[in-house]
């Protein structure tokens, strides 16, 4: 059964007696909006609104904004696909490193700035709390700081040099533009606040599935520090990975089982966005709980009961044909690797409608599945597939990388070889030496289709693989260091003036 009652909506846990969706839709009190005293109910209203942003990672602000998809489009794992190059043209330009200020991911910008603002509201409410016990108040603060860091870290990764604020903005609602390094410092402050002092549990109770945890904050810190290449904090991050490992709160489980309904919030899942098959509509840009990603990436016109050639399953439905997997990806996997059929779908020619950049391969983890959508309308927007944001496998591969690639010394008996062996044993494979190349390759296999590959290539400095000429798949692109950041939307630059005038990223 779908676990939404006990997931991010938190209705029972947080003391609400109404149906679960109300936690995400109730508005803050007028007194709190004015900066007045905040009851626990007002704090939780703001916190629910902050968590709701997680549910917009597919369609909101009339834009398709899936972060896993948008991240992978710049990698060497998938193509854009869809109807033709002009179908969702911005995504094709993104995949070709050819965005401009008028064609960039403005929807993503708006979603995560809304997240920043909502998290600020939680923190402000906590500062004005009345009659809230200290432990609960500290947990709410930590959750808000974690969520703020999570949302801002995506703005930072995609755009780098961005406006930042922690208070309500007075008219004309403009904020100073920070450099990417300044944003990094703000992110570290937030994740350290969430981690320090055990304000969050290492793993939430089952009734708390979907809430932030200490382990999630530690993994977010790891992503931020490793992307910044801040060597002064590598030892801290390795220590965090060791703490998660030693806690015994998480462990690896059958890889294929992670991605179905029964695998939600499983033993290897550290943080998920809990999607519900309802609520989104084409004409409503900021509502609902479902995800569009499954429809977006599934083959167009897939015939009923078609067997996936890799997994021999017939549970998949058709969609729009975006994000086809590149043909060379198959050769990355060793014979018998159980992750391949769970990560890639392959359907026989003629069982679906081939579209732009068709390879015959599709991303399987978030694919459209039969009975995963009972929305009474706008079915394509309302699949229930949870987005797995942080998994325990990342703890193991982070630790292995920090030890081997970055020369860190563990403070416990954890070894890079042991971490790599755990990953490969779960995949049904034998041991290989824990070299830098093997760790990087294992990371690519493990997280295929989860939006990790591009960011890894950038931080490793392995971006030479991103320049390519593949005319048969309409991909002609040249990487330059300016492509690390996308252009700031021109519409946002036009809103600013004077001391707050936004400066466009270099290269655009």
TrEMBL record:
Keywords: Cell outer membrane, Membrane, Signal. It is found in: Cell outer membrane. One of its GO terms (cellular component) is cell outer membrane. Residues 102-226 form the SusD-like N-terminal domain. It comes from the Bacteria. SUPFAM superfamilies: TPR-like. Pfam families: SusD-like_3 (PF14322), SusD_RagB (PF07980). The keyword Signal applies. Belongs to the SusD family. This is RagB/SusD family nutrient uptake outer membrane protein.
